[in-house]
Amino acid sequence: MQHSQGFLNLVEQTRKRIKECSVADVQARLARGEKFHFIDVREDHEFWVDHAAGASHLGKGVIERDIEAIIPDKQEPIVLYCGGGYRSVLAADALQQMGYSNVQSMDGGIRAWREAGCPIEKDKSI
Fold this sequence. Notes:
6 helices; globular; 17% strand; alpha/beta; 5-stranded parallel β-sheet; Oxidized Rhodanese, domain 1
């Protein structure tokens, strides 16, 4: 997907305010059995096609509205991802502004996850 320059500029400015992690970091945390919220922030239809194994879904369009009901403890560790690591940067910034102190964006998103050969799940209801 070709992103507009304005969007890319926004993401790059936002990236300076948030923490990022790699696919390898997430895989290591999962392998160690660490407890954290692994959240796909893509659109519903994107999640239904496939998603990282073990991830839950909370789309970027509703994450600010719904996050406090799902994760009321703002100290809980959260890793967000999207398609390529752009929308999750913006979502991580929004959660930090809401007081979440342990949130990261997975660099490269689901694209990097797939390229690394990490496990993928498909929605069984489709």
